[in-house]
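Quick one, T. Sequence first:
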Amino acid sequence: MSTTAGYTVTGMTCGHCVNAVTEEVSQVPGVTDVEVDLATGGLTVSSKSPVDDAAVRAAVEEAGYEVSGR
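Structure tokens:
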């Protein structure tokens, strides 16, 4: 069984932004898949068990962007 969590990321403007967020969030322990939609700023994180929101937010910030709501 897997779980998914959705977030909205602000500040992304290009494919490089998407790659940076994908790379950082993929390193969060337990994450099995990351999908980023540049047009909407949507971030979908899949994992085998719920992932710590703070860890996902920190990964997005490490990539240089912000999570605005969930």
